Amino acid sequence: MTLVMDRPSTAPEPAVEEKKETGGLVIFAWSGELDKIWPTLILANTAAALGKPVTVFFTFWGLFPLVRNDRGITGDVWMQKMLSFMNRGGTKNLRLSKMNFMGMGPAMMKTLAKRYNVAGPQDLLDTAKEMGVKLIPCQMTMDLMGLTKEDLIDGLEEPAGAATALAAADGATTLFI
Amino acid sequence: MTLVMDRPSTAPEPAVEEKKETGGLVIFAWSGELDKIWPTLILANTAAALGKPVTVFFTFWGLFPLVRNDRGITGDVWMQKMLSFMNRGGTKNLRLSKMNFMGMGPAMMKTLAKRYNVAGPQDLLDTAKEMGVKLIPCQMTMDLMGLTKEDLIDGLEEPAGAATALAAADGATTLFI
Amino acid sequence: MTLVMDRPSTAPEPAVEEKKETGGLVIFAWSGELDKIWPTLILANTAAALGKPVTVFFTFWGLFPLVRNDRGITGDVWMQKMLSFMNRGGTKNLRLSKMNFMGMGPAMMKTLAKRYNVAGPQDLLDTAKEMGVKLIPCQMTMDLMGLTKEDLIDGLEEPAGAATALAAADGATTLFI
Q1: Partners of residue B174 in chain C, C-beta under 8 Å
Q2: pTM of the model as a whole
Q3: What is the ipTM, given to two decimal places?
Q4: Of A13, B93, B119, C41, which one has the greatest count of Cβ atoms within 10 A?
């Protein structure tokens, strides 16, 4: 019961059944790179546009794109600070998982995206929030990486754990990205 | 309802329901490396052999293995051409995601695969087509990377977008590879 | 309705059927790095704690963490031996998929994990076995990599193939990690 996330209990019986058939989308966003944030948020927003309930559970490296762009080094202990220095968070600092070429790859990708009208990560994130996509930061990752709620952007759900993500995943289309 | 892709409408009511219950397999093939194409196509072909409807949605780096082997540099603008040069498409040019060692890794893997009777990527792709696996190239990626239908192998479905892939994913086993 | 997990067990007869319908968790563990083993086993063990049937199918690089820590170089032919030398198996030898820094990254991560009470890979693996998570090594990968049952830890299921994994995946939450 307590694991169940936010299904409107106001909906009448038939609506629930209909919802069950179409199912929702739950993405475990683990990676955090530009080329992984793209499919994560494009799939999330497309599913939301199709009327599906969508949850994205940001965990491990996946949490870093949710760090505020104006945030500097994060973390309590030196290892967390060093990690944050090597893997700077925020949508402005995303790398490619391959062919990063010291940042030239992401710059090229962003230029191509603009040219071909593909929304950038910040726009996609804003749209996701507007469309009611639930963005859940992983509490354990926050502890491990030394990230606080103040380090993260606004409009996120309360930090939660694997059990919450798995409960949302039940009966939904699930992807680990 | 209209979102549901390609369910045989000839089947009688109970059969449809049964099929729906066991579900199909939908793979989001994002990666494009040799060691990712292997599980993608082995799982796709195995599921097809088990009688399941299978769809593979090739997106982002995942599109490059579908480029014709006799195709040279692809793309309209220099950034796309450069990308195609650095990340040569086609089943003959696949890398490993780790331990690539300038191509020595893939050569070793292919040798081991031959020795232990594991089909190579080209054979798996041919088999997938023969078995009726739907291979859908992502339209947005084609735009972004400057790939045209002429750049891609024969036997693919019409290019489509995330909505098509998500519709197919409904009720199916879904994997992001 | 049936999508909802973890209803109080006060529910009458249909509860059993409900549980079956909501399905379990099947993870295709392909990657084998420390930062991928973590989500694999944390999700597996969490789902098991929630009473779900859980299967992890270890394939390709994912098989290496299951190699015994006291095992040296594995494989029959020199290419397999070389692979095992470059990609040493066992939970003690796991790398990070990014920011590995010649082993400094994993050491830091393990230190942080200890500090914030996140269980290490060996503990998670032991817990998984205790909780009845089915750990299936991929037969084809074993052949390809030259790994024998004697090379792998105790407590695993019989080696199996893609068909077995896909059968378990039917109706379950599925993730490719």
Answers
A1: 174
A2: 0.88
A3: 0.86
A4: C41
